[in-house]
Each structure stands twice: as structure tokens, then as C-alpha cells.
Design a protein that fits this description.
This protein is an all-beta fold. Helix content is about 0%, strand content about 65%. The strands form three sheets. Strands 2, 3, 4, 7, 8 and 12 form a six-stranded antiparallel sheet that branches. Strands 1-5-6-10 form a four-stranded antiparallel sheet, with no helix packed on it. The chain has a two-stranded antiparallel ribbon with strand order 9-11.
Length: about 150
């Protein structure tokens, strides 16, 4: 509202979206009878989409045209790496604790419409990394576990 120097604004935003396809390697290193260290390295592509952002503007009782930042999408190289621990409770059931790091860097070109002046922040490009650290605590079931002789 302040950046547009108007009386009232309202914003509607759709969702960010991302999917990835990343094959890779998985290592399971037993260090005790029921305890293992795990590691994985994945590489592939990620597709990310920004939301559509619509800002409705009202100033002095007059409704101005909405300012719209259109959704943009891009496919880029991505990788994920992680380490964890696995503790076997039963022959086919385990508890996993894992930390993963994900990284991709799409270069979005963003279209804007409805601007009648230069007020407000206008984003036309987004060239920054998208990264995350994910911690997982889970239960794993192993389908093909065979009895040891």
C-alpha cells in the first residue's frame, strides 16, 4: 500500500509449484548388527513455477486497474544429497533419521501487466538459487528381506 502511495490494496496469490526427476546412488553401510549409516546423491532436473500475483488498487474511492505479475516457470539442473541413520527394529522394519540438501537455480523471466505508473516493486527476473535442507524421521518397511542362514 505504501509503495503504491494509495488508500487501499488487496493481493491475491496462487501457489509456488515444483517437481523434480533425479535418479542417483544410495549407500547403506552397516556399522552394527541393527544400525546403518545411509547416504544418497541424486542429480537431474527440477521444474519450478512462480505464482500469479494480482494487486487490486483503490485510491480516493477510485478503483485503478489491477497490477498483475504473471506466473513464470523454468526447468533447470538440480541435485540433492543426504546422509542418515537407520536402526532396524525387526527384520523388515526400521526407523530412519535423515538430512537432505536440495539445490536448483532456475532463471525466471517474469511478465507484468496493468501498470499505469512506476509505483510499487516490479520484479521482471528472478535469478537466485532455490535450496532447502530437509530433516526426516520415518519408518521404513523392507519388502524383500530374507532370513539369514
Amino acid at each position: 500500500q505504501e509503495s503504491f502511495d494509495v488508500d487501499k490494496t488487496s493481493t491475491s496469490v496462487t501457489n509456488y509449484k515444483m517437481w523434480s526427476v533425479m535418479p542417483g546412488l544410495y549407500l547403506d553401510l552397516p556399522i552394527a548388527k541393527k544400525f546403518s549409516i545411509t547416504a544418497r546423491a541424486l542429480a537431474g532436473i527440477a521444474h519450478a513455477s512462480t505464482p500469479t500475483i494480482t494487486v487490486a488498487i483503490e485510491d480516493g474511492g477510485v478503483v485503478d486497474p489491477s497490477v498483475i505479475q504473471s506466473s513464470a516457470s523454468k526447468t533447470a539442473f538440480a541435485f540433492d544429497g543426504g546422509v542418515g541413520f537407520r536402526y532396524s527394529i525387526l527384520r523388515c522394519l526400521a526407523i530412519n533419521l535423515r538430512a537432505d540438501y536440495f539445490y536448483t537455480k532456475p532463471d525466471f523471466k517474469i511478465a507484468n501487466s496493468g501498470r499505469i505508473n512506476n509505483a510499487g516493486r516490479e520484479v521482471t527476473e528472478y535469478d537466485q538459487a532455490l535450496s532447502s535442507v530437509n530433516f526426516t524421521l520415518g519408518v521404513a518397511y523392507q519388502f524383500s528381506s530374507k532370513k539369514k542362514k
